[in-house]
């Protein structure tokens, strides 16, 4: 059950994850965090955006039967979840704030989502961090699909991206385990 930090609501990670069957329990923008441990009504929330943002009370209006809590935006960092996706803000938290995270994994979908000291602290605590260079590689890999093959549909491009990201992630994390190294450090070496 991931929580999403999309403080500018540009990327639609919550929508994409929900479409794949993932239960999204917290979703933050630059003003508020919406939380429902049973899973947020992502399609209803997504459809209610105005100029890319959710009105403060939209969670309750979109799904009155659900128990959606509207909290301060930083509540996204303390919501109980398996994976956190930081999707729209650099340096989302400092080391002290990161210690409130209860997740087992974190995806840096935003450029420089975490400072290096935060990544190192999370790594030392056993939290798997997918670095921004890998998490945001989809656009480049889509272009690669266009140049390496002649895809007949968007689905073929997405399949290429999925296969390549899966391969790159498996290779990266195998090397991290073997070398006992931080993903950021392995990527820096570029071997």
Write the layout of secondary structure elements.
Blueprint: E1 3-5, H1 13-19, E2 26-28, E3 32-35, H2 42-47, H3 58-62, E4 69-72, E5 83-86, H4 95-98, E6 105-108, H5 116-124, E7 128-130, H6 132-135, H7 138-148, H8 154-179, H9 183-189
Parallel strand pairs: 1-2, 1-5, 5-6, 6-7
Antiparallel strand pairs: 2-3, 3-4
Helix pairs in contact: 7-8
What does this structure look like?
With about 190 residues, this protein is of the alpha/beta class. About 40% of the residues lie in helices and about 15% in strands. A seven-stranded mixed β-sheet has the order 4-3-2-1-5-6-7. β2 (about 25-30) and β3 (about 30-35) form a beta hairpin. α7 crosses α8. The two termini are about 35 Å apart. Residues about 5-10 have low confidence and may be disordered.
Main attributes of the structure:
191 residues, single chain, 9 helices, seven-stranded mixed β-sheet, 7 strands, alpha/beta
Low-confidence parts: 6-11
Shape: globular
Largest sheet: 7 strands, mixed
Which structural class do the helices and strands define? alpha/beta
Query: Which percent band covers the strand fraction?
Result: 5-15%
Strand order of the largest sheet: 4-3-2-1-5-6-7
Total number of beta strands? 7
Order of SSEs: EHEEHHEEHEHEHHHH
Whole-number mean pLDDT: 82
Rg estimate, integer Å: 17 Å
**What is the CA–CA distance across the termini?**
33 Å
Helix content: 40-55%
Could you write a compact summary of the structure shown?
With 191 residues, the chain is an alpha/beta fold.
């Amino acid at each position: 059950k991931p929580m999403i930090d999309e403080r500018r609501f540009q990327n639609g990670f919550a929508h994409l994850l929900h479409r794949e069957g993932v239960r999204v329990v917290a979703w933050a923008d630059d003003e508020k965090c919406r939380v429902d441990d049973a899973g947020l009504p992502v399609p209803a929330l997504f459809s209610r955006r105005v100029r890319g943002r959710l009105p403060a009370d939209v969670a309750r209006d979109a799904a009155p039967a659900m128990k959606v809590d509207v909290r301060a935006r930083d509540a996204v960092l303390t919501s109980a979840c398996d994976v956190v996706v930081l999707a729209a803000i650099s340096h989302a938290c400092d080391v002290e704030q990161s210690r409130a995270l209860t997740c087992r994994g974190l995806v840096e979908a935003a450029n420089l989502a975490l400072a290096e000291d935060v990544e190192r602290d999370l790594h030392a605590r056993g939290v798997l961090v997918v670095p921004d260079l890998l998490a945001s590689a989809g656009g480049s890999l889509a272009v690669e699909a266009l140049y390496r093959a002649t895809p007949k549909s968007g689905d073929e491009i997405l399949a290429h991206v999925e296969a390549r990201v899966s391969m790159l992630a498996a290779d990266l994390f195998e090397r991290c385990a073997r070398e006992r190294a931080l993903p950021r450090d392995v990527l820096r070496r570029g071997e």
